[in-house]
Amino acid sequence: MTPDEILAQHGPREAMEYDVAIVGAGPAGLATAIRLKQLAAERSHEISVVVLEKGSEPGAHILSGAIMDPRAINELIPDWKEKGAPLNQAVTGDKFLFLTETGATATPHALLPDCFRNEGNYIISLGNVVRWLATQAEALGVEIFPGFPAAEVLYGEDGSVRGVATGTLGIGKSGEPTRAVYFLNAGVASVTAALFDGRLVEVATIGIEGMVGIEALFGDDSIAPGDSMIQVPEPDAEAEMMTAAAFRQAIASCGTFSAIVGRYAQGLMAQMIQSTACNALHSVHQRCARWLLTTHDRVQQRDFRLSHEFLAVMLGVQRPTVSVVASALQQQGLIRYRYGVVSVRSRRGLEEASCECYRLMRSRFSQLMQ
């Protein structure tokens, strides 16, 4: 697909560069990712690997219950027993039967070919094995993005495969006319500011409490002040869409709706102002805690999907910085991060780790929307 075709079919895109992209976090995909990282380490070479998985987590779409020959895992991860691989039940015996209408005839074990014998094999839950492989892959630095189905293969001009496009996450482009507003019913959207060198930083967070495209309030010629994208997607989540013209008509005809939209616009403006101060004056550790709290408020559940790459974009820092900060928060028992999913374990601890900006933003928004 050409860039214009990608834009037409999938909307505005954020590009993330990796050396290798693997579609599907099944046994083959995860084993490939692990082996690539192993080979790179053996050669003292850095390689970035990402695995895209349409399920909510690795193993979510795996039918469990299988007999596993451990030869492949012995070669891939020789110390799998010490690392806790879920191969716990060895095969203790098997029978090969010819079934008839009235009974069954057993074939002597000595007559069976090797491929019919299960000595040394294990009875496993394949879903659990896949989840364990995912932890091993992440320990090697593999990025796993659950909930991101590959929607299209991308080709270069010479016909070579250049990558994949995932499901649409962009819903607004900086500098372009605002044609519609979106009211999310789940997930979290971010408004970001882009620099000439391609770096992004978040200036506003939007959830089910608000709308994307509030600038449509200001007239027919309104333009988007920043890129808007879905940063915390939820399975099967949708957004209610109104054209900008219908939105303005509803404001003109309904005083209550107009008042609510006006108060929300004030709250969003206050959030942008406070975010500017926060990004300039507070540490990455504090800003990360603030962003996690803000997102946690909007998803209204303990767990939400988030990659280190996306969080780095939101905070305007490099991915290694986010990894260090997230690891510190995890060691403090404030969050848990696994399979690209953040679990908030201590809101009080996150609030103590955050700067005053979180409390100010929340207080001002509550005051406006009472």
Structure description:
There is one protein chain. The protein has 370 residues and is α+β, with helices and mostly antiparallel strands. It has 2 domains: 13-86 and 128-146, FAD/NAD(P)-binding domain (3-Layer(bba) Sandwich); 170-369, Jelly Rolls. It is built from 11 helices and 19 strands. It has helices at 3-10, 27-42, 71-76, 126-139, 244-253, 255-281, 284-299, 308-315, 319-331, 347-353, 356-369, and strands at residues 20-23, 49-53, 66-68, 89-90, 97-99, 104-106, 122-124, 143-146, 150-155, 161-166, 170-172, 180-184, 188-194, 200-206, 227-232, 239-243, 303-305, 335-338, 341-344. Strands 11-15-13-14 form a 4-stranded antiparallel β-sheet. Helix 2 (27-42) links the parallel strand 1 and strand 2 (49-53). Helix 2 (27-42) runs parallel beside helix 4 and helix 7 crosses helix 9 (319-331). The longest helix has 27 residues, at 255-281. It starts with a helix and ends with a helix. The model has no long low-confidence stretch (mean pLDDT 84).
What's the short version?
The strands form 7 sheets. Strands 11-15-13-14 form a 4-stranded antiparallel sheet. Strands 1-2-8 form a 3-stranded parallel sheet, covered by helices on one side. The chain has 11 helices and 19 strands. The chain folds into 2 domains: about 15-85 and about 130-145, 3-Layer(bba) Sandwich (FAD/NAD(P)-binding domain); about 170-370, Jelly Rolls (Sandwich).
How are strands sequenced across the largest beta sheet? 11-15-13-14
As a percent range, the share of helical residues equals 25-40%
The level 1 CATH classification of the largest domain is Mainly Beta
Which class of secondary structure composition applies to the elements? alpha+beta
Tell me how many strands there are. Answer: 19
Q: How many helical stretches?
A: 11
User: What is the total domain count?
Assistant: 2
Question: For the record, what is the CATH homologous superfamily label of the largest domain?
Answer: Jelly Rolls
User: How big a fraction of the residues is strand?
Assistant: 15-25%
Distance between the termini: 48 Å
Rg (C-alpha, Å): 25 Å
Quaternary structure of the protein: single chain
CATH topology of the largest domain: Jelly Rolls
Largest sheet: 4 strands, antiparallel
How confident overall, as mean pLDDT?
Answer: 84
